[in-house]
Amino acid sequence: MTAPFQASLLDSCERAGPGPLGSTVRRTLLGHGAWIDLRPGWISGADDLFERLARAVPWHAERRHMYDRLVDVPRLLKFYDEDEPLPDPLLEQARDALNAHYARELGEPFRTAGLCLYRDGRDSVAWHGDRIGRGSTEDTMVAIISVGAPRALLLRPNGGGPALRHELGHGDLIVMGGSCQRTWEHAVPKSARATGPRVSVQFRPRGVR
Ligand SMILES: O=C(O)CCC(=O)C(=O)O
Ligand SMILES: [Fe+2]
């Protein structure tokens, strides 16, 4: 029996949706005022959620200017602004649960959801901080749910240094907080190994990208 099949069997015994947060969340201080919270396996029914999102979200490819060329963004995208309904009720539940847990510390709600589909190991996101909006000047939070096959999310201090690596998939939650978007960078590197598809859902406050 393969590991993903076992995971979905286990999943189907529990009610689909976000589990508790509270004391199940593990915080790591990164230095420079940045921190991450990790909550492995937060979403029950994550494999089913992956299938629904992969099928139902109107994914699109983007091209961006790089120096003097237009290049393909190596992943598919869909951004849900604050007034757009999310593509699955489970994502609404997850956002509500994140808001209940983080609102006091964050001082405002998570409002938008950016979705990325990494089709295989060739899809990736380069080193960056989410620095549009308050991410460049103020502390904020970006909460990411990962479903589907795990991919490595790397974090390193701005400008380089040893990277921290977390393999995220199958319903894991990571929250980047404090100064993380302006004093650290994150990336999902390409993988040479055979890798199944992964969807990430990034919840952000208004104006942060
Ligand atoms: O896929 C991820 O977990 C990270 C995506 C990301 O960093 C972004 O879209 O800003
Ligand atoms: Fe990002």
UniProtKB/TrEMBL annotation:
Gene3D superfamilies: Alpha-ketoglutarate-dependent dioxygenase AlkB-like. GO terms for molecular function: dioxygenase activity. Residues 109-207 form the Fe2OG dioxygenase domain. The keyword Membrane does not apply. The keyword Oxidoreductase applies. It comes from the Bacteria. GO terms for biological process: DNA alkylation repair. PANTHER family: ALPHA-KETOGLUTARATE-DEPENDENT DIOXYGENASE ALKB HOMOLOG 3 (PTHR31212:SF4). This is Alkylated DNA repair dioxygenase AlkB.
